[in-house]
Task: structure prediction
Amino acid sequence: MAITGGSVEMAAPLTGSGYSVAGCSGGGGVSSDGGGGVGLTCDVGTVATINDTMSLEVVETLDSTAVLRIEPAA
Result:
């Protein structure tokens, strides 16, 4: 994970094949802890939905710290 200004770059691990990301820029397969995943970059205040099952919001960034809200998608 990298924090630059008001953006957070991260990798989300996924199971199975295929993925969808809505709300943040991203896409493309990445390796995450030895497994598959998707890379994404989200700005503060942006809410992303991953595979229509997980909601991820970047609430705040401060220097090298980010506050994320992760919950099941509605």
About this structure: The first strand starts at residue 2 and ends at 4.
